[in-house]
UniProtKB/TrEMBL annotation:
Pfam families: SnoaL_4. InterPro entries: NTF2-like_dom_sf, SnoaL-like. SUPFAM superfamilies: NTF2-like. Residues 2-119 form the SnoaL-like domain. This is Nuclear transport factor 2 family protein.
């Protein structure tokens, strides 16, 4: 239960750090070798939290003003891989709202749980299998 709670806290931390621009704290969220898959946005894969920071800064005011995460589901594969699937809602300054699914692989490191892989899947069609 302690690990499960820590993973929930980790996933929740994403929005707080990103929305406040606390890029100096990305090492609290991601492993150093993180792969952040933004292929659904046409951005391919970002490697390392420095690349995530650079991409976020480059997007500037195109970033959501709020990243909200909900429906966090944690599972463990037979081989011990811990997967997290959650829903994300992005609120933009102009009032637009977007919905995504985050598919994460997390791992326990000396400093605690970190996201090692994140795939962001756009949700634009209802009841999409």
């Amino acid at each position: 239960m302690e690990d499960r709670l820590a993973v929930h806290e980790l996933i929740s931390l994403h929005g707080h750090l990103m929305d406040s621009g606390a890029f100096e704290r990305m090492d609290e969220l991601f492993s150093a070798d993180v792969v952040y898959d933004l292929s659904a946005f046409g951005s391919g894969e970002l490697h390392g939290y420095e690349a995530i920071t650079e991409a976020s800064l480059a997007l500037g005011s195109g970033n959501p003003v709020g990243h909200h995460v909900t429906n966090i589901c944690v599972s463990e594969d037979v081989d011990g891989t811990v997967r997290v699937r959650s829903k994300g809602i992005g609120i933009y300054a102009d009032g637009r709202v977007g919905s995504v699914v985050y598919e994460d692989v997390v791992r326990k490191e000396p400093g605690g749980w970190r996201i090692a892989y994140r795939k962001v899947i756009l949700r634009r069609v209802p009841l999409q299998p």
